[in-house]
Amino acid sequence: MPVTITVPATTANLGPGFDCLGAALSLYNRFEFQPLYSETATDEVLQIEVTGLEAERVKTDASNLAYQAFQHYYQKIGQPVPPVHLSIGLEIPLARGLGSSATAIVAGIAGANVLAGSPLEEAELMAMAIELEGHPDNVVPALSGGCRLAASRADASWAICEVPWHPEVVPVVAVPNFELSTAEARRVLPSTYDRRDAIFNAAHLGLLLRGLQTAEPDWLATALQDRIHQPYRQSLIPGYEAVQIAALEAGAYGMVISGAGPTLLALTNAAAAAAVQTAMKKAWEDVGITADAYILPIDTQGTVVAA
């Protein structure tokens, strides 16, 4: 029996929440795992087909990220990796800062868990996903939905906190037609930070959590500032300043880099969302960059399994 895993896009960091805060968005990748029943050792053990957005760029051999996560799960529980047919349907742009790699990791682990008889609980799947991704800000909301804050405990396990998100706070994303790898975005970051910058981010993250809960415009406008990653990454995103000015003039509370970028995320209210969407897209086009812009409500379900 096939198992279908639907995983939402995510936006990570949200300004001052670098590597610890993320939210699930209403845009999805779907992964169907169908067991292959082999009769001989020479039978095929892996089939992958990919459809949808930029499907031709996704690997269809054992190096496929979803399959690597699938394999990793079985290695962790000490069972042989079963032969499988994997069908992938893509809606989330690749390498744009919307968590496409997190969907593959989460789907591979979740699909493997179902085919293995679901021996692991969500917390165990989450720890495995964080281990593979390297940080929690994308995989945690991709798995659980909503907005989530992750903090490591003294024993290296994870405390996951749901962050209330007021329905009047509306995410708008502008996705340009160029890519920015996470590795490149991390290379530009300094190895040490000034104490004043650390204090600045701690204060603004606290204010952001309250702003998301209350939709208080002044708190959100102030809270979205950051000194840890965005000042260094802005130079990697042509047109950043023009898009930011356009978003603010159209009524956004503020604008941040989504994940490692280059997608830009504005937070606004429902009344201004359409104007912000149009303004961000046009601002990029005015500097010669083709872009798509979307109003994407928060996804509250996270990963959905259908067997």
Task: Explain the overall architecture.
The protein has ten helices and eleven strands. It has 307 residues and is of the alpha+beta class. It has two domains: 3-163 and 299-306, 2-Layer Sandwich (Ribosomal Protein S5, domain 2); 170-295, Alpha-Beta Plaits (2-Layer Sandwich), CATH 3.30.70. Strands 1, 2, 3, 4, 5, 6 and 11 form a seven-stranded mixed β-sheet that branches. Strands 8-9-7-10 form a four-stranded antiparallel β-sheet, with helices on both faces. Strand 1 and strand 2 form a beta hairpin. Helix 2 packs across helix 3 (122-133) and helix 9 (240-249) packs antiparallel against helix 10. The protein is globular, with a radius of gyration of 20 Å. ATP binds at residues 93-103. It is found in: Cytoplasm.
Estimated radius of gyration:
20 Å
How many distinct folded domains? 2
Gross geometry: globular
Strand element count: 11
Largest sheet: 7 strands, mixed
Give the SSE order as H and E letters: EEEHEHHHEEEHHHHHEEHEE
Separation of termini?
Answer: 7 Å
CATH architectural type of the largest domain: 2-Layer Sandwich
The SS-based structural class is: alpha+beta
